[in-house]
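=== How it folds ===
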Amino acid sequence: MPFEFPIPVQIAFYRLERAITRPVRWLAFGRVWKRRVVVAKITGSYGKTTTSRMLAAILKASGHTVGLWCSDGVLVDGRQMPGTGRSCYYGARRVFRHKNITAAVLECTVGGQVMQGQYAPRCDTAALLNVSDMHKGQYGLETVADTARVKQSIVQTSTGSLVVNLDEQRSVMLAGTRPASALIGFSMDPQNPAVRQLISRGGRSIILSEDGEQIVLLSASGEVEVLALLASIPETANGTARHVAANAMAAAGLALSLGSDTNSIRNGLERDRFAGHLKPRFSIVDTPSFKLVLDKALGPLALQNGVQATTRVGASGRRVAILSAPWETSDDMFSQMAATVTDDFDCFVCLGAAGDRYATALENAPVPIDLIFREKDLISACKTARELVEDEGLIYVQVAYPDQHEPILAALGIAGD
């Protein structure tokens, strides 16, 4: 692994840099604000990139020229700009350098906030998707409360509405200081009491319909309006990845805050017109012999959602999981992820530098050792999985980055698009 300074040293360096450059940063942003570029921030432990993409598509359908910064890099009006990296101050600055944009969508990571601070001291709307212990032990954050404080500092920069996840108590508590009229809640549960409570206080809520097929807007006046059909949203893989509905609802709430109408929201969600070259975070590939599921689940909750979606993919043969995780993942998270996959797959291929730790967690789950395979690289893991899978079986890849899709398909003997 390449040498890196300890996290406390990095944080101290960036804090010093921020103190020195703060006047220049704020002056530069003041020019952006005078141009009346509407700014949206998205933060949370999971789902930021998908939500950011969907919001950018809606704003483009609304007539905006959109600059997007997310883990996919910088995109302006759907075109990929050179370079990529983590969502942070430098990425946001690159978005604002494009003087033709009328809307900016910024994915705000906890690491980027702690290490480099915020480029935009204000925004027109913000979304808090969820708060989890995914970053526990990283960036000097020791508890979930530490993570929550960082996310709260991001959403507090909103001068307009706050979009909040009503299914998660921590998110609701962080939004508790806002007046109801400045809140748009979203929930996967149409019977969630927090939905009706928010509406009764003058707020708005976006929920799944009772049959789970539609995304619906509820307003204080009692009006009910269908915003999109779940199965028509490309990111949901024809409705299989139902957890993506939460991201679609958050994007719709942000778009409403920025003045988009319901037709633009529907077009943006169902047509996904912002950047056609970007791969969905969850996708299904059908082959004559087996089915392939490509996911990007970096933590326990994301993996749980991905596995639940995979159970809806019909496959009568052996189910093989290719498992991997970032090196900094804690042992506790490995244990949680191992517990998530043990009942839904028959064989497990552990990949990469953290593969041994993943395999140990599986053994402790417990999984028989003869069902666990270790591979150092993605290509070898795919070849092993191909040998293990049977006709009518399924291969699930836990962490498939967009630039890995083609190599995965090639290693499995599947012709590309």
